[in-house]
Amino acid sequence: MSKAANVLKPRMHTDAMDVGLSGEDRKELANGLSEILVDTYRLLIKTHIYHWNVVGPLFHTIHVLTEEQYNALFQATDVIAERVRALGHHAPTGRGVDTSVAIEAPGQSALEMVEDLIVDHEAAVRKMRDVATSAEEKGDLVTNDMLTERLTFHEKALWMLRATVAE
């Protein structure tokens, strides 16, 4: 095989890492971040579909809000995946990972869509808080900081969604 062809062959990153985190801790955090990444993609897709399908008196408000949120979620996927890679692991590829999203947007009211997004954002906050706490305990300040930023986004998203449908 030519040198050029050898360069193009996929290889696992096998260099030893000495960044102050054990291999076991890096793996545990990468797994938690991978779950968060998959959940973020699901929420991104759901938010985008609701953006397209919302109707009613709050159409414009929810349409604009969900556009801002799905754009932020899309950017977050890259940040999260790159942190998994920086910890020495591969971002999830879909193999063995449930990436399905079941959405019943047609026929749902704007209120039902927003309430569904609230449930998903709350679940994201709980999971991120757990992984951020674990990262802090293990001394992974970068993962903790990144997740603190993500938590800030999701908690603000919750506030905005709740305020949109408040009576």
Describe the structure.
By secondary structure, the chain is mainly alpha-helical. The protein has a single domain, classed as Ferritin, core subunit, four-helix bundle (Ferritin), CATH 1.20.1260.10. It contains five helices and no strands. It is globular and about 60 Å long. The model has no long low-confidence stretch (mean pLDDT 89).
Structural class: mainly alpha
Proportion of residues in extended strands: under 5%
Radius of gyration over all CA atoms, rounded? 19 Å
How many helices? Answer: 5
Principal-axes shape call: globular
CATH topology, by name, is: Ferritin
Per CATH, which architecture?
Up-down Bundle
Fourth CATH level, the homologous superfamily: Ferritin, core subunit, four-helix bundle
Helix content: over 70%
Please indicate the count of domains. Answer: 1
- How far apart the termini lie comes to 69 Å
Question: Mean pLDDT, rounded to whole units?
Answer: 89
Oligomeric state of the chains? single chain
Summarize the biggest pleated sheet.
none
Regions with little confidence, pLDDT below 50 for 5+ residues: none
CATH class: Mainly Alpha
Number of strands: 0
* Series of secondary-structure elements, N-terminal to C-terminal: HHHHH
Fold topology:
Layout: H1 3-8, H2 23-53, H3 59-86, H4 110-138, H5 141-165
